[in-house]
Design a protein that fits this description.
Layout lengths: L16 H28 L15 H26 L2 H6 L4 H32 L1 H5 L3 H27 L9 H9 L13 H16 L44
Helix pairs in contact: 1-8, 2-4, 4-6, 6-8
């Protein structure tokens, strides 16, 4: 069964200019901005490529909100990868029926969505109410938090409205093929013309998020401290005046 939620304006079932702009032009613009933006950021703002951690200012709320948000967003991300990138024929070939996939996706997606939303709410509350943290918050941060909140709220609303309150909606027959068609370089915007509006708005807000991604603290998600594994030891000089009375550890030489 499909949901009876409204959809964005259509023109006789055919994709008009608006559909081409939203479901063809905008995705490719987003990909270009996302890739080139990261290259530019790394080249010209390498030292700004950081989370700009505020842990020193406040830890109690951070210890609750940060793990909750990161756990939820990780599950949400993996769910989107599985739902958008993997065709339903592959999961069926692996023995996972459409009903099984639907139940797992709805249950895990709803739980992860609420965890992500709760964690984000705690982090925003902390950033607004803790003076030093709020003072360190830039306009860029505020924009990022606002867009991220909209994306999460729309995604959670689409899941609840279509699959829990409504009669169900199989986005793997429309949104997923459209998503893959973008990367196949054979975009098919007509797949999105009949999609419920909450799913459409969720997709569009996600495109906006990826457009601003390279210019926010979200860039830290694409990095890992692998350099720590190969960097040389750091030599510390002792200020102990009685250094000569201490036997050095095996394998270490004193620095004169």
């Amino acid at each position: 069964m499909t949901s009876q939620l409204p959809v964005l304006a259509q023109n006789g079932g055919e994709t008009g200019v608006g559909g081409i702009l939203l479901w063809v032009a905008l995705p490719y613009v987003t990909i270009a901005v996302f890739v080139l933006g990261h290259i530019w950021r790394y080249r010209y703002d390498k030292f700004g490529w950081t989370t700009r951690s505020s842990q020193l200012y406040e830890r109690r709320l951070l210890r609750i909100g940060s793990p909750l948000f990161h756990f939820g967003i990780l599950v949400v991300f993996l769910g989107h990868v599985g739902g958008l990138a993997i065709p339903d024929s592959w999961t069926e070939a692996a023995g996972v029926t459409e009903h099984m996939y639907h139940v797992i996706a709805v249950v895990l997606g709803t739980i992860a969505g609420f965890c992500t939303l709760a964690g984000l709410a705690i982090l925003i509350y902390r950033r607004r109410t803790v003076g030093p943290v709020f003072a360190a918050t830039t306009r860029n941060d505020k924009l990022m938090y606002a867009v991220l909140a909209v994306v999460i709220l729309l995604g959670l609303a689409a899941t609840v409205a279509a699959n829990i309150v409504g009669g169900g909606y199989n986005y793997r027959e429309t949104v997923s093929p459209w998503f893959r068609s973008i990367f196949y370089l054979r975009p098919d915007p007509e797949l999105m013309t009949g999609v419920p509006i909450l799913f459409q708005l969720h997709a569009l807000s996600a495109l906006v998020l990826f457009c601003i991604w390279p210019f926010t603290r979200l860039v830290h998600m694409l990095t890992a401290p692998l350099g720590y594994l190969t960097r040389p030891y750091i030599v510390y000089r002792s200020r102990d005046e009685q250094l000569g009375m201490h036997k050095p550890r095996r394998g270490w030489e004193r620095v004169p």
